[in-house]
Amino acid sequence: MEDFILGISIVMALLAMVVLYRVVYGPTVLDRIVGAGVIGTKTTILLCLMGLIYKRIDMFVDIALAYALLNFIATLAAAKFFRVRKSIMPGAKSFKDREMGR
Amino acid sequence: MTTTLSILSAVLMIVGAFFFFTASIGMLRFPDFYTRMHAAGKGDTLGAFLMLSGMALYNLHAGFTLVAFLVSVKIMLIAFFIFIANPTACHAITKAALDAGVAPWTMKEGKK
User: Fold this and answer.
1) CA distances from B61 to A34, B3, B11, B33, B73 (A)
2) How high is the ipTM of this complex?
3) pLDDT for B41-59, tens place per residue?
4) CATH classification of A2-87, choosing from 1.10.287, 1.25.10, 1.20.120, 2.40.30?
5) B7 touching A (Cβ < 8 Å)
6) What is the pLDDT of residues B1-43, one digit of tens each?
7) Which domain holds residue B40?
8) B53 and B76 in contact (C-beta within 8 Å)?
9) For chain B, which terminal residue's Cβ has fewer other Cβ atoms within 10 angstroms, N or C?
């Protein structure tokens, strides 16, 4: 069973590499943020798996919980920050311009 | 009893890894931002929930003690939090994209 958990951890790490493509080459800023959020969720799972491998799950589960909270708050803050920017897509109108009728 | 719990948790982890795999492929291959959010928001949430459920079951396989049970409850707390927070973050960032004017992907004219 330990080998199985190690294999699942390796699969998680490889899938994080796959999503890293979207973080590096994402066409918009929001694509990068979403990719970072997906990698953060995978890291939460990976922390719990590491706890099972090292048989210290009671310690690693707190770290995983803190990481999940930080990941959520980071995504929300980035969403709030980039909402009022109009340079996400070239040539796009932001909602401020549309409200003012520009 | 122990073998049953191990097999059940292994099945849950494999199904969770499958959902993570589909979410990653969707992030890589979908054509625009909103369809990518569809892959990331749903596949990731269900994958994390199944994976953490499998881990909480596997944590109980050595013997049902109070400490192991409390740690399993904490793992399920993470799963519950991800189940609420991940769709919320997905909704917030999609609304931000819509307000910032990211154009949705549509089929081109004259191309079926």
Assistant:
1) 36, 8, 14, 42, 14
2) 0.86
3) 899 999 999 999 999 999 8
4) 1.10.287
5) no
6) 678 888 999 999 999 999 999 999 999 998 888 899 998 889 9
7) 2-100
8) yes
9) C
